[in-house]
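User: What would this chain look like folded?
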Amino acid sequence: MRILLAHKFHELTGGAEVFFRETERVLRAAGHDTLMVATGADAVDRPHNLQLLQAPDYEGGTLLGKAINLPRAIYDGGKRRQMAGIIAEFQPDLLHAFAINVHLSPSILDAAHDADIPVIATLNDYKHICPNYKLFHHGRICYDCKGQRFFNAARNRCCKDNAALSLASTAEAYIHDVLGVYRRIHHFTFSSDFMAEVTTQFWPDRPFSWSKLRNPFASATHQSRTDDEPYGLYFGRLVAEKGVDRLIEAAADINGFPIKIIGSGPEQPRLEALAARQGLSNVEFLGPKWGAALEAILSRARFVVVPSLWPENFPYVINQAFALARPVIGSRRGGIPELVADGERGLIFEPDDPGALAAHIRHLATDQAAARRMGIAAKLYSDALFNDGAFLTDVTEAYRRGIDAHRHRRR
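Assistant: Here's the prediction, encoded as structure tokens.
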């Protein structure tokens, strides 16, 4: 097949870019012809099958510049025309879209519609139903925009607590709804059942085709160890929705068991101050770590903690932990419970209950055999489900269903 893949970034900035790149790698290795479309600066090591488009600097610049670029962020007619040209030249059998909002904009879906090709969309956040992507703001889960009541995004200042940004995101949601951009998609893929269920709640009168497409991740290539050292580990961004403050609160009640925190972010000063105020000598901030340095610490941890407050769809950190046979203590949010399976590959706690988190930490801190049993189960589960062969089977099935849905709509 000739497959056109589109994502707003090619440069690695997070798990979404890993998903995009790895999907293309697996497809190309299986013999498919692939072309990636993204935005960003050109580089000498740019893959030959990557076409980079230019996008304004939506993060920086002046307030006036952002206001001028706002219409393009919502619906970029120029990108639609560029994508039409790419489709005409490449002649794909389908378009596989990932995160395209703002930098590419959903206008590219109309280019695919004009060319009469199937569109499959992989959604890793909640932008299709929630103006701020997260279903979470100001410390709480939020479904206020259900029923196309997007004005609540502006009322709640849910986008970075910024009135102007929240208003712009409200306008974006209404415009996309009126234009019906998500109706251009023939088949959706989600990494978790949770995302499919919540999408159904927001779209009760809008039937949609979907299938599960787990993260592309070569678990078996990661060598695990059966021993461990007595510490728990958090690694990831230090932002409010990740719930690291709950972990620090719990650390005061775990009999001095060491907790290592890897990562950086805007919450770091507050979290360090919180640990200092409580006199927690067992909490250590290690800063950001990558590659072999991260894996060396992760592979020896007794367990990994994922204390998210927001409904994370499918955290890559759990993939990384499971591949190294580390059990996960995770919050009952989003797709986390599906992965952890309470008591099998780790333990689940209510995120607003640091006492419950502390109890789980004490349990695995003192019962090394239980931690090892869960870690082995996590590795077996990960190796069986997260490999190139399983991913190729699932993505091929998604494409088949998308093509069938496209054919059915033509009738």
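The two ends are 23 Å apart (CA to CA). If you want, I can go into more detail on any region.
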